[in-house]
Design brief:
Structural class: mainly alpha
Shape: rod-shaped
Distance between the termini: 54 Å
Radius of gyration: 19 Å
Number of domains: 1
Helix content: over 70%
Largest sheet: none
Length: 46
């Protein structure tokens, strides 16, 4: 494997990790932002 290819793989892995981290934090924020009462109503509706 060439050095350039290895570096490209490392960059791709790091970028994927960053995307995963931002996605997790965004999901957590959205989760905490939604009111519990509204969620309960949704569950009761189903």
């Amino acid at each position: 494997m060439s050095a350039g290819r290895r570096r490209a793989m490392r960059i791709a892995l790091s970028s994927r990790a960053v995307v995963l981290r931002t996605w997790q934090t965004w999901r957590r924020e959205a989760h905490s932002r939604t009111p519990r009462s509204h969620r309960g109503q949704c569950h009761a509706g189903t």
